[in-house]
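User: Please predict structures.

Assistant: First:
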Amino acid sequence: MGEVAALRQLVGEGRKDQFEETVAWYLLDFEHGSIKDDHCRARTGYNSELLKIMEANQSPPRKRSRRDKNREKAPNSNSTEEMQQEIWSEFPGDLFETVVARLPVAAIFRFRTVCRNWYSMLGSESFSQQYSEVPQRLPWFYTITHENASNNVAMYDPSLKKWHHPSVPLAPAKIVIPVASAGGLVCLLDLSHRNFYICNPLTQSLKEIPRRSVQAWSRVAVGMVMNGGTSNEGYKVMWLGNDGNYEVYDSMKNMWSCPGTFPPSIKLPLALNFRSQPVAVGSMLYFMCAEPEGVLSYDVSTGIWRQFVIPLPLHLTDHTLAEFQGRVMLVGLLCKNAATCVCIWELQKMTLLWKEVDRMPNIWCLEFYGKHMKMTCLGNSGLLMLSLKAKRMNRLVTYNLLNKEWQKVPDCMLPCSRKKQWIACGTAFGPCPSALA
């Protein structure tokens, strides 16, 4: 108390507020070093006696350890727990599904480990409805690598730019490849027994489709569409062969059917381009044809076939169909002389011609100069993955059709291996934890 009284006598009662502000300034400056009398007098007009009193009440400056600094910054653990209890105890229970449905997919699966109720929440109809109302996320890619001895599956999450390596819930003797996808579900084809499976790659749920009624087997193109907005409304799977045979599987009826005969106006055999997966726009499936060059469409809801003769761009080698906001796109390699470039085209409905809308940056294409490139293209719903391969070179690239943005993909390597993998086949799917096969 005596020191405070002495200070007040020096500065006067009328300047009390000003002194309090000045003390704060002195204390901050003391942490970094001592104060010089001349500097203080220039700032405040106080004499050296005031400084002596203040310096007498301050411990000498010392360097604080990092542990002390972190301890000051870290909040008290007890107060944090109390704060969380206050927040979550008042949180409305019906909003949990609304909040969780808007989290990143990886976070949703981490939340499943909290309690049994949250674990079972993903299978509820209410959560499925909430998830369907969330703006569409970037699709993931379900791929099979070239070393497919044990069904080496690699899933790529473009949001986190991360590869996942799930196990296929099938016997190791079965060799399955992804052939189509829709609504968070992927259609797998067993090459040995020629059976179809539907799975959710995120939850590893799996369903075997009944055997086809057509016993004879030939190479087929497979497409898949949803009946509605969610998998609860069912889906349809369709296969089509070059000979014109086709069937449609309805998940609501759990059976295959042949809705009609192939129209005589379309010449057989079809010469389908099996390297290009069919793409879906609503209930319409589009197949790429090699001869004549063009597109074949089938509406699974009406059973109507249509054929469009569309010449391909010149100097085009590997190419595949894609879809973006209801528009049919074409992705391919343009090779002229020793130069190679990836180009994107959009189908013009009025002229039935391909119009180029974008191409890979030239600085990236220089890497392909003089090389014999091969391209595998996966994708739908606005995001494409390109596997570009040549001798001693393997590049993975994504292309966003909305932003027209090219991005390099991290190398795909199997667990416990440093060998880079290249993509043999695959498909894109919308990640949906609640999708049921």
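Second:
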Amino acid sequence: MSMNIFSTLDPDIIGAHILPRLDGTTLTAFSSVSSELRHMICNDKDLWRNICTSTWPSLLLDPIANNVISTFPGGYHSFFSFYHRNNNYYSWCPSAELIYAIDIYLHGEPFLSRVLVGCLTAENLTIVYDSTLGPRIHIPSKEGWFEYLSKNLTFSWILIDPTRKCAVDLFPSCCKSNFLGGYSRGENMKQFEIGMEGKAGLWPRMELKFDCMGGDPLQLHLRALIVTHNRFGSSSFFL
């Protein structure tokens, strides 16, 4: 759509009916079309908040995440921009209280979201949930179950630093899932583990443990989410 067409539209129509239909990446590219559009897009706080919270539902789980992001210069727009930057040079501060927003997606849709607030230290931090509440995955065939999960499960782990007012993506798209092993938990149940490791061994590792109940289609019950950092120790979430 050319800028000539946009110049004939009421700004309220653009803001209410066009911009909310675009994703963040498209909006970022769109903002370079003109200074008017850039101002409209970059300064729409509700627009970027809706984009970020729909992309990362974990941001809605704890008010502190919203409060901290609101203090960023540019708010949620800055948060979105931080996520897409090259974060190889972020330096960790183990004594700082950080926010960790974790989202897992199945077929691109939110599957599980969790938020950690605090410090990752050498001590283990465990949060226990009722295992009956853990989500299930139905896999069409027993054959190729890991390939199915590798293709359809994706991960996001974002570190939010309230002091520096910045965020960093710990699991870029280049990270791949790995099969960690499986073992029997009884005659009719087996447990499988898959994991994902961050950049160059310096970033955290995430493990998902599934109980396999068999059946056709195959039913997997997500039993545990374990996050580990090779500098600060490990944290576990049991569902």
